[in-house]
Design brief:
transferase; 2 domains; globular; nine-stranded mixed beta sheet; Rossmann fold; alpha/beta; EC 2.4.-.-; seven-stranded mixed beta sheet; Glycosyltransferase family 61 protein; glycoprotein
Length: 415
Amino acid sequence: MSDAPTSHVADGHDWRAMFSVAAEQIYRDGGFYDGEVPLPSLLDLAGACNGAVQVVAELFPPSPVTRPMPDLLAGSDEAFIRLIQDNYRHFNDFFSKIAASVLVRIRQAAIYDNVVFVVHNGTLIPVYEMLRTVDRPVKGREMAVRASRKGESRSIDPDGNAFLFIGSVGSSNYGHWLIDDLPTIKAMEFIAEETPITALMSSLGDRIDAVRADGVALGRSQPGMVKPMFLPVEDLVFVDNLYYATPVSYHPILKHPQALAHLLAICNERFGASSLREDRRRLFVNRSTSHPRHITNNDAVKFILAEYGFEEIFPEGLSFSQQRQAFHEASHVVGIMGAAMTNTVFCPPDGHILHLAPNGWGEPFYWDLAAMRGQSYNAFFGVPQGNIDQVHQCSFEVNIDQLRAWLERVVPKPA
């Protein structure tokens, strides 16, 4: 046992006892969507722990959100297409505002299993902004109990560095890291320029951790001023004066447009911006057959796309900068719906995006992303193969006639 504080949960613990780090500011103009945890109770608990958290700066203000309906949804199941359209209309009506994002400093904090806690009088209180309605199905409702049962804990010494936690429930997935986590490096602008920053992140696997390390380095232009520190998810780690940026998204149907704009600006600054050329690239975003959710008639799809000048890429084999560059240079993208297609955030606002997915998987994440970027959103839903109880994992067949019709309408044939 280290000399870290002895942690416990409050007597009579209620899982709803969570600490919103700045509820009054974050949700001042809406964007609070929780039917289980009342906003007044979050305000009351924060008031009872006065001084535990300090707001440093507002990163992005609250914002209204509007989304055009997709340009085209097609598939063999007309009832499913109508269901998606009805769902999208509902999302537009109900999820019409996104909350503000702020940078806070937590006087005494703890990190466990990729969740931040406020430590108040020795009590571990989960940060609400990491356990919202959309996050709890992944992390569960008893994070404070789980963390307090850890037999050992440790503290880390800042040694002159500022500690900034970067993470969310979806950090292990490239697409969620790109959209949910990476834009929060804006927080580094509000930490003294001469102060080195240690980006604290839970370790989630060698491949994604390498990408995340490259990403956080973008937060400062001076080399060596940002270094990553990966924490084992099973460790309970105490940190004093921890910086934390609240979410810039609400999975799967809200992404802060200003946060996405910041992501693009910082990548353009660090990697360079391409000039707008008439001969922009056309990408076919594929994945190997070793993955679930691949195209069963892949050869036929590749053949027709090649006729229209599409080049096949496999983004999982590219570095972050290479992925960004490829999509940044693309005017048209056709690809299998999934994390790699989140890179379409780097495509221009007049880009044409076509997602290929199994029928029955009505994921709205990519529709919302295209809307926030002003891009044309299209999706084709093919006949799934295998166990449709896990339809998002099913491989599927693409309707070649529908694909050709879309290409003829949208994509000029190369000379």
